[in-house]
Specification:
mainly alpha
């Protein structure tokens, strides 16, 4: 697993928790519409999205999730580095140098989690506006 995957997974966990201020969800919905599909570009887009001062608490949670995931990987012997991956017994993986070692489904998973929240939020707001039927 590349370091970008780890960071993207941490952001997915924050989205799944639903623990974002309500005003940030609107911006996140827009972010999902323009989200890059390349994991490295997505990582940079996440960092840029978290940059404003009003998102400092979200950024801190993200960094904490990254540390926790990284610690979990180290505990299982599957730690990653920014410089590459190691195979079984410390061997180099058999990948073509131009072949990406990132999971192409992570951007899709992130986008789906954001859209699921939007759908749940829309459904909940519509059901609360409906008059009760006798």
């Amino acid at each position: 697993m590349s370091a970008y995957n780890l960071d993207i997974l941490a952001f997915i966990e924050i989205i799944k928790s639903g623990d974002l201020p309500p005003e940030q969800w609107t911006d996140l919905y827009s972010f999902a519409e323009e989200m890059p599909t390349d994991p490295e570009d997505l990582y940079e887009a996440i960092e840029n999205w978290l940059e404003p001062l009003d998102r400092a608490a979200i950024r801190a949670k993200w960094q904490k999730f990254i540390q926790n995931l990284d610690a979990g990987l180290e505990a299982t012997g599957k730690a990653t580095s920014k410089f590459g991956e190691m195979g079984f017994g410390g061997s180099k993986p058999q990948t073509i140098p131009t072949q990406s070692t990132t999971d192409p489904t992570l951007p899709t998973i992130l986008k789906n989690e954001i859209h699921l929240h939007k759908l749940r939020n829309f459904t909940n707001s519509n059901s609360s506006n409906q008059p009760l039927k006798p």
